[in-house]
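Lab meeting, item 3. Inverse folding demo.
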């Protein structure tokens, strides 16, 4: 009886401790450099999560190796809910891109909920002599072997979109990887590279300011964002079935207590209903997730499906890292 009473006492103390979570700042690791699309999502979300959790939310940028370094750091972190990961579609593509991945996507994390989906845009340097998609296709066919396609590094959203674009138009281009979206965009603006396919969170301002050529969006439906509303889809432009959105989700290390996972999921759900956050995301062309994928179980099921979707395409292209 005495043992049972002590066990019950400790169980009660544990419940109280979990109920008080969080008691200190929460760190959200972004596995890419500051200033990029994923970083923007994390900082917007972090500000609202701070209000919902009642503690500061610190954004830590741990870039390198296509996002795998930051993800690995969180996978190995203490499972107490104070170190989280905000990652994009790279969670689903890394298993195919890397022979020696330092974590197991489906088994080394607790899934907390999907955050948003971000369409992508096909853009080009400002002085490229093609103003419409049809003109771009003629230019591409006339310049085979001379086209430079920029991306933010192996496994980045721009790399994946560019990979599919080359497959759809059946033209190999010289891929120019950069250490982040910022440097890639700078060289596109300067005319050092020709084309890039990147998230609306990074391209909308440039398109709105007329600093790049914009040809199409990668979703099957046109976007309502003012700066992008006139852009056709790649699907309607002739690349049938082209449909790429870059999603973001939040993760905790495997073994994080269910009570903490539930608390974080509740905070995410509340944050994604914040009018200001919705407004900021919509202005960038991003769509806040409101469906079943907000739940940890459905989030994990979705990522598993994405792994199955992207794996064969990446392996067929033979683009992977050691």
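The presenter then showed the designed sequence:
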């Amino acid at each position: 009886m005495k043992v049972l009473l002590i066990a019950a006492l400790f169980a009660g103390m544990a419940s109280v401790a979990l109920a008080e979570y969080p008691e200190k700042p929460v760190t959200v690791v972004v596995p890419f450099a500051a200033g990029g699309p994923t970083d923007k999502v994390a900082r917007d979300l972090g500000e609202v999560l701070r209000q919902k959790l009642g503690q500061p939310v610190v954004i830590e940028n741990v870039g390198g190796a296509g996002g795998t370094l930051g993800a690995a750091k969180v996978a190995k972190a203490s499972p107490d809910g104070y170190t989280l990961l905000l990652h994009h579609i790279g969670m689903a593509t890394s298993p195919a891109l890397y022979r020696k991945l330092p974590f197991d996507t489906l088994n080394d994390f607790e899934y907390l909920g999907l955050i948003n989906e971000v369409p992508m845009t096909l853009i080009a340097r400002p002085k490229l002599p093609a103003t419409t998609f049809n003109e771009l296709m003629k230019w591409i066919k006339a310049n085979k072997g001379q086209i430079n396609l920029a991306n933010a590094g192996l496994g980045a959203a721009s790399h994946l979109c560019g990979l599919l674009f080359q497959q759809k138009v059946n033209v190999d281009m010289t891929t120019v990887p950069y250490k982040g979206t910022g440097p890639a965009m700078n060289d596109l603006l300067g005319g050092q590279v020709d084309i890039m396919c990147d998230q609306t969170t990074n391209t909308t301002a440039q398109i709105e300011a007329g600093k790049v050529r914009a040809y199409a969006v990668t979703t099957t439906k046109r976007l309502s964002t003012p700066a992008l509303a006139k852009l056709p889809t790649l699907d309607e432009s002739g690349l049938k079935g082209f449909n790429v959105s870059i999603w973001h989700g939040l993760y905790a290390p495997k073994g994080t207590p269910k009570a903490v996972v539930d608390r974080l999921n509740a905070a995410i759900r509340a944050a994604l209903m914040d009018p200001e956050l919705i407004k900021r995301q919509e202005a960038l062309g991003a769509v806040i997730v409101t469906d079943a994928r907000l739940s940890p179980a459905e989030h994990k099921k979705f990522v598993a499906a994405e792994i199955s979707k992207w794996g064969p395409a990446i392996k067929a292209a033979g683009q992977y890292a050691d």
